[in-house]
Amino acid sequence: MRIAILAHEKFPGRAKTALGILRYSDDEAVAVLDRDNAGTRVADLVRDVQDAPIVSRMSDVDEPVDALVVGIAPIGGGFDESWRDDVRTALERGCDVISGLHYFLADDAEFAALAAENDCDIWDVRKPPVDLTVSEGKAADVDADVILTVGTDCSVGKMTVSMELARAAREAGHDAAVIPTGQTGIMIEGWGNPIDRVVSDFAAGAVEEMIVEKGDEHDYLFVEGQGSIVHPAYSAVTCGILHGAMADRLVLCHDAGREVIHGYESFSLPSIPTYVDLYEDLASPVRETTVAAGALNTAGIDDETAARRELEAYGDELGAPASDVVRFGADPILEAIL
Amino acid sequence: MRIAILAHEKFPGRAKTALGILRYSDDEAVAVLDRDNAGTRVADLVRDVQDAPIVSRMSDVDEPVDALVVGIAPIGGGFDESWRDDVRTALERGCDVISGLHYFLADDAEFAALAAENDCDIWDVRKPPVDLTVSEGKAADVDADVILTVGTDCSVGKMTVSMELARAAREAGHDAAVIPTGQTGIMIEGWGNPIDRVVSDFAAGAVEEMIVEKGDEHDYLFVEGQGSIVHPAYSAVTCGILHGAMADRLVLCHDAGREVIHGYESFSLPSIPTYVDLYEDLASPVRETTVAAGALNTAGIDDETAARRELEAYGDELGAPASDVVRFGADPILEAIL
Prior knowledge:
Two copies of one chain form a homodimer. Chain A is of the alpha/beta class. The first copy, chain A, is built from eleven helices and 14 strands. Chain A has helices at residues 16-24, 42-45, 84-92, 109-117, 158-171, 183-189, 203-214, 235-245, 272-283, 304-318, 331-337, and strands at 2-6, 28-33, 54-55, 67-70, 96-99, 122-124, 145-151, 176-179, 220-223, 249-255, 260-261, 264-268, 290-297, 322-323. A six-stranded parallel β-sheet of chain A has the order 3-2-1-4-5-6, sandwiched between helices. Chain A is globular and about 55 Å long.
């Protein structure tokens, strides 16, 4: 698929979804829409991702495009009216539109009419399917080994780690797939259930359904985790994924230097061994499992020696192999979990 | 309010909501609708609850009624078409209709039209409010002490324990209120958020919102817990309530003799001390708390001496005072938590 990615005024630093797609999607990015950086290229701003020209607006994209992807999410998940022209232009050209906003574009009267008129689809990835139900506690019955990324907080790299581990496993000759549970993962993979938008009674069931669907087709499933089990707001999502996935092994993801919960700064992170105990002890009555490896995000540490030192300390606290999958590769983790 | 309670073919044994309302609601029950027991009275079948005549159908209720309450929930939460006449009759008489079914009666074309025509309301208590949002982690800031009932499984008596403790606290002269989180609690109290139907991202926030609303008006809030923290399907709900409530003290509810998870019999319950550790350890990074007392449901044990022996063993395992609030009263628990 050939895609354009909307990321106005937030690319690249605050465009996590756009970057995830550029890094991991099989789709070909023909343009990034960012009026602040128009005229430059992705490669001028970010390394290690797919390159593409950056333009001001959808009407500046001359090449054929199959879909426009909204690659940013403002706080609250609303639709920014300054994007309306771009979405309108895309639909008028017959492009599909893919969005992870809380505001559902398919329910917007103008967009719905344009999509019908031009015979194209609007896919709001955060709208969960209507046929979800409760877990039956059977995810562990699948043939595949299930590996779940869990975290010490939000935004510590669980999605990235899941993608990198699956990619590295495939490169090592294994049949591995990602089970996407959040908007960026869903956009990259082209399918998935947005667990944070599922009613809480069905959170575990929505994870189980995906594992059961894919579990006999692959040798390894990497389940994208969400939030943290001690997050004041989002722990319900984490807990539903933990019990729904019934993982064989866990990979604990952490952001080097993070000491308090992001956005909830009065809450301190417990120690790494406490996280290990909490995740293992909570999972075990449903499915015995262990934290078999750790992933540390050292992007905030410039000095490589200092980053390695942090990583070593993290592995010691964890009592398991650890790596920064982006900086130092996935091998130490893969050896521990495959 | 004067109410009729629909409980066809399930009263009293499989009519948990109807019984909860008869036991704890301030509303006056003028009739129970149960075609299997028509002609008898509630008091012939159940003790310790409000009495009322049992009739076959709504049209047999001669007295004025303010609301018809659907007091049973079939597996799956669907609407049984054999109840349509009763709901229709109620609406034609100008009665409100209150339902906790997953099938929303307000979305039923015939019922919606009748309600509009006769100027009465349909309240689907399982439809969550639309303005919910994420928790801010501030439930602990309220003046009231917050006491949360947690459980070893579903259907062990958390709602009953919450109601009994609040009632006993009030009788002892304290200003106590219940924070209802499930359909029966919501029907009894006349307000509340159905946490199991809230999107998982907002589960904790929906609990916090209720505590913040009531927390400065009372000395004690008894939060109705849901599910169990190790339930294969429902733990997300439990976890959201645990972190959203930020309780000062927990009361661990258990059903005497229960060894496996209800409906998930391949999963064994962990030991009581394991539950204590799990709930305390998981809550503590958000809010330090302790399991200060236990509630044991001994309804399945006929012999009183045997029931007392079970209770004693439960208290020993728990390392805290325990009681069966229905059989032996709430005092031992109240002494430990107020």
